[in-house]
Amino acid sequence: MTTQTTxxxxxxxxxxxxxxxxxxxxxxxxxxxxxxxxxLFVASxxxxxxxxxIYLAMWIFIPxxxx
Length: 67
Fold this sequence. Notes:
Elements: H1 22-30, H2 34-44, H3 51-61
Helix pairs in contact: 1-2
């Protein structure tokens, strides 16, 4: 009996990206729609906190998708 395991990796999207592919990559990883992740990010920017710095760090440290 063979078992095939698929590992999910968080990567930045090459297609459907608007600014760096971070939100599209997160949406792909979570199984959500990219517009929903983008809307949540924009809404979170209205709250105080380091959201923009976290986005920049994710843009730097998350690898770009190979496909």
